[in-house]
Every structure is written in structure tokens, then in C-alpha cells.
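User: Okay, second chain of the day. Same drill as before: sequence in, C-alpha cells out.
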Amino acid sequence: MPSRARHFRMTSTRGAARWLGLVLVVFGLGIALVAVLAVRGCVRGWPLRSDEHVLLFNTAAHLSADGKVWLVPVHGWVFEPETDDAVRAAALATLKKGLHLGASSAEAAVLEARVRGFLVDSQSYKRVVVRVAGVEYAFGPTEADGHFQGTVQVPLDAAARFAKSGVLHIEAVLPAGSVSGTVLMPGPRGTSVISDIDDTIKESQVTDKRALLRNTFLSEFRAVRGMPGLYRRLAAEGAVFHFVSSSPWQLYPPLETFSRAAGFPEASFELRRVHLKGLGALELMSDPTKTKPPAIERLLAAYPGRRFCLMGDSGEKDPEVYGEMARRHPEQVARILIRNVTRETADAPRYRAAFRGVAPGRWQLFTEPQQLSWPE
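Assistant: Same drill. C-alpha cells below.
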């Protein structure tokens, strides 16, 4: 009897061990499968939900080196607006109170619209389908800030069918409907204008930090007098425009809306990606010497046969950045035009240093657009 009982216990133990081993194997396979699916989801990106929004930024395409296809850059942002989030609502209310804004004041309404992009919930690891010239492409996964980027090759005949007046419209395919974006299609030859935004086309007063904050977050954007007309005249003569600014991408919606409403031509945008953790309000538009040169270099490399005019202002570092670009690319940078908001004269030490080695006829200070002639 004892031996039989011991055998039974041993058999039961072995059976339990086998079952436990089987359960662990199955559980392990389940974990492995979940891990694989998670990794695949992260690599490929999860599909969009109905409450997630997509914003496509204006970009500019260029021809490949062999001239056989258009290289179309796609750049977008996935986020949840979170307009009904209590924490965000409380943060906005605190901000309004700290700025002594009445709940129904015009400035409060402007503030709410301007900070909206900073209060959204950016979505990472998302897959976005974008329709370009009739073909759908999957982009992603989105990065931690919700941005996604990629380049699509579009054959010349397809571009000719879908692009109208030098502009190609693309669409992000959403669970319900779609959202469009604009891609400029500049030819390999011609004139391109790389333009700053603050104090070049929009009154910002960057040299006065309090005024800068007010003009950025509390006041309606105002165009610099005469600049919309100047840009339209240049566009009528064939110029293509690229806005390059140190403003954050979170301000893209109001900036793009302002640009269109003020009558500026269609333009691509190159703004600054910022992470808000530990970032002060004044730092949102800081350090143009680090953000602008790479963006300008990319444009010059994309269009080696085009001649460029660099348009900026004296409020920050445009003279220094543009002067360096002219020295690096003397065959491409044809003109530098600087709106004089600091009232320094052209023979000031700053400009002598900024435009060292640049022919005097290639750069000009101006206070009013009427002072400029185009072309020389």
C-alpha cells in the first residue's frame, strides 16, 4: 500500500508538473506572441482612431537627380485635441487668470486658439495612410511628438495629371473622411524666396520680449505693411516661397491661416520641433542659428539649379545666418534682403561682420518694401 500511494503521489506530481510546464509554455508563447505583435505594432504603427486628428504640413517637392520622378516629402502630425479634458481646461483657466484676462475677452479667445496646439495629446506609434497622386502610402510609426515624415516618388506623368498650377494636393485617409495638405512643385530652374516670418512678414517685435509674447499669444497676427503685395508681385513673376522660422510647429495652424488670410502666396513651411518639458514661453522661438541653417541647406540642396533670395529682418540673427549661407553657396544665393527693425545703418560693425565676403550689391537693408527693386 505505501508503495502504491507513493507511486500515486509521484505520478500526480509528475502530471501536475507536466500540466504546469504545458501551461507555462503556452503562457510563454502567449507573452511572446503579444510581444511580437506589440513590436510589429510599434514598427508598423497602430491604425488611427476616430478621435485622433491628422494635420498635414505644407511641403515642397523636387525632381530626382535623373529628372525621372518627383520626390514628394510628406510631413504630418497626429494628435487628440482633448478639448474636454479637465486638467487642460484648468491649466488654461490658470493661465488666463495669471494674465488677468476676462473669460470672455478678445485676448482670452486669441490665447485659447494659440495655445491649443500645446495642449493636445500627441499620438506616438500611429500608422497614417496618405494618398499622393492617386496612390495610397502608409507612413509611420509616428514619433513621441506625434510627427511622421517620409518621401514618395511620383512619376512625371502622374504629377502632370494631379498637380495644378505648380501645386499638388495630398490627403490623409482618416477613419471618417480625409484631410488635405499642399505640396509645392517648383521646377529645376527659377527663383525661390526663403523667408523668415516674425518681423519679416508678421509684426512680432522680437527685440521686446513682453511685446513678442503678447503678439504671439494674445493679439491677432498683423502683416508687415506692404509685404503681402511684394510677395504676390514676386509670385506673379514666378517666384516660389518657403517660410523658414524658429517658431514651433504647434503654431503652424494659426501661422498658416494668417498667411493665407493676409494674401501671401502658397508656401512650404519649415518650423521648429520642440519638446515642452522644462521649456519656457520665450524659449519657444529661440536659437535661430541652430534651427534655420539646416533647413536652408536642405532647400538649397534640393534645388541646385534655382537662384535664391533670402528674406529676413534684423531683429535676431537673419543677417548672420544668411551671410554664412551666401559664403557657402555663392552660386545659388543671389540676394539677401533684410528688413531693418533695429535701425542700424548698413555700415554698422554688425553688418560688416555678417556680410564679410558678400558683394555689397547682393544684400540690402530696407524699412519699407517700396524701397526694393526686383529683379535688379
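The CA atoms of residues 87 and 259 lie 32 Å apart.

User: Thanks, on to the next one.
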